[in-house]
Specification:
This protein is an all-alpha fold. It contains 13 helices and no strands. Helix 2 packs antiparallel against helix 9, helix 6 packs across helix 8 and helix 8 packs parallel to helix 10. The radius of gyration is 48 Å and the shape is flat. The protein starts with a helix and ends in a 16-residue tail after the last helix.
């Protein structure tokens, strides 16, 4: 903004100064009171600094608007009206065609509205004015519909930009400059796209802009695991504390799960296979001893019955199990 202001003052262009004044008239009423006073204070300091750096600049700027009737630039601009009236009388409604009025042959027209009237007639001029007003209308509706302060400020800024174009088009042939023409239609497209987005969702916050309506509150969800009955199975599993396993295999797997440690690869027939084989051997030996005991007891009892003496019954010696 500072660079634009310095360029407008140093260029001594009426179009640039009128554009800055139009933007200020649109923006100042929409700002808070504190920002208005700050802007006015900065403007006064800026004018004072420019007067000290470039003596006579402020007086020259005021003289551009004091003596408009005797200004040679104004007189040269008004001379274009006579040539434009001739062309308008020949083709009043549709004009002579877009781009057919050559400044080198017929003389320049320092007024875009007048040039559009000559080239496109009354219908073309009406369409141009309606197009500019449609952009302003879209930005105004966006400001009224949106609830976000950033979007509202953006809409007001777009209105100010279009007001600069509307005022400046009356002082020079804007469509004769590619950058000015492209900027005009770019702003119109932005106004339409913004209005379409906000109309679909008035509560929407635009990307890359903070939400200024309410402070952000960070919420964290804590899963209590098995304590809460409504927790999900996955959350209960993740929230529950894992107890170390008593067996060697479980302890090794728990140690392998710690960060920074790597689990040792074991063959398929490792400690677990050995433990299962030893338990199988113990159970088989126990079964064998039990069966031996039962068979020996049965034999001795049957022999005692047959002899008729029960006192001499002796149990066979017990075999010591391998378990």
């Amino acid at each position: 903004l500072l660079a634009v202001s310095i360029g407008a003052m140093v260029s001594l262009s009426r179009s640039a100064i009128l554009g800055l004044m139009a933007a200020g008239i649109i923006l100042l009423p929409s700002w808070p009171v504190r920002r208005r006073w700050q802007t006015l204070g900065v403007g006064v300091v800026f004018l004072g600094a420019m007067r000290l750096m470039i003596p006579g600049l402020i007086g020259t700027l005021f003289s551009l608007f004091n003596n408009l009737s005797g200004d040679p630039s104004i007189q040269h601009r008004t001379e274009d009206y006579a040539r434009a009236e001739i062309q308008i009388a020949i083709h009043p409604w549709l004009g002579r065609g877009f781009g057919t009025y050559l400044p080198d042959k017929y003389g320049p027209l320092d007024n875009q509205y007048l040039g559009t009237l000559v080239e496109n007639g009354i219908i073309g001029l009406s369409m141009l004015i309606l197009l500019l007003l449609a952009g302003v209308y879209a930005a105004m509706r966006t400001r009224m519909a949106s609830k976000d302060l950033a979007v509202r400020d953006l809409s007001q800024t777009l209105i100010a930009c279009l007001s600069v174009i509307i005022v400046a088009d009356a002082t020079y042939d804007a469509f004769g400059f590619i950058m000015a023409t492209g900027l005009c239609f770019l702003l119109l497209g932005i106004c339409g796209a913004l209005w379409r987005t906000i109309r679909a969702d008035p509560d929407q916050v635009m990307p890359m802009m903070p939400d200024r309506r309410k402070p952000k509150v960070r919420t964290e969800t804590v899963h209590t695991g098995a304590r809460s009955g409504s927790a999900r199975p996955g959350a209960a599993r993740s929230g529950a504390k894992s107890r170390p396993a008593k067996s060697g295999t479980g302890a090794k797997s728990a140690v392998a799960g710690k960060p920074g440690q790597t689990a040792r690869a074991r063959p398929a027939g490792g400690r677990s296979a050995a433990a299962s084989s030893s338990s199988a051997k113990a159970s088989s030996s126990g079964n064998a001893s039990g069966s031996a005991k039962s068979s020996g007891t049965t034999r001795s009892s049957s022999s005692a019955k047959s002899s008729g003496t029960t006192k001499n019954r002796t149990d066979p010696p017990r075999r010591r199990g391998t378990s």
